[in-house]
Design a protein that fits this description.
There is one protein chain. The protein is α+β, with helices and mostly antiparallel strands. Helices cover 48% and strands 19% of the residues. The protein is built from three helices and five strands. The chain has a three-stranded antiparallel beta sheet. Strand 2 and strand 3 form a beta hairpin. Helix 2 runs parallel beside helix 3. The longest helix is centred in the middle third of the chain and has 19 residues. The protein is elongated, with a radius of gyration of 15 Å. The termini are far apart. The mean pLDDT is 87.
Length: 85
């Protein structure tokens, strides 16, 4: 999987700076994505952006004031909260 480092970190023997692109085994990629140390590169990123855009528009349609820093997990939680009120 191709990722882009979001923060300076070390992967294997390589020191990465924010913005560096690198390849990583899928089994390790999930950890870096969940910890916020990397984000997907290329087409994978655009698929995630499309999902976030959909969640943002759904939330705004429910009257939620959306913060652009919110990820998919937070957006879904806010939507669920609004639907169960």
């Amino acid at each position: 999987m191709r990722l882009i480092a979001t923060k300076a970190n070390k992967y294997g023997t390589r020191r990465l700076q924010a913005g560096d692109e690198f390849d990583i085994a899928d089994r390790y990629a999930r950890t870096l994505l969940l910890t916020g140390l990397a984000r997907p590169a290329g087409a994978q990123r655009s698929a995630l952006d499309a999902g976030l855009s959909r969640l943002r528009s759904d939330a705004q349609g429910l009257g939620i004031v959306v913060d652009r820093r919110w990820g998919a997990k937070r957006l879904q939680a806010e939507i669920d909260l609004a639907l169960h009120r």
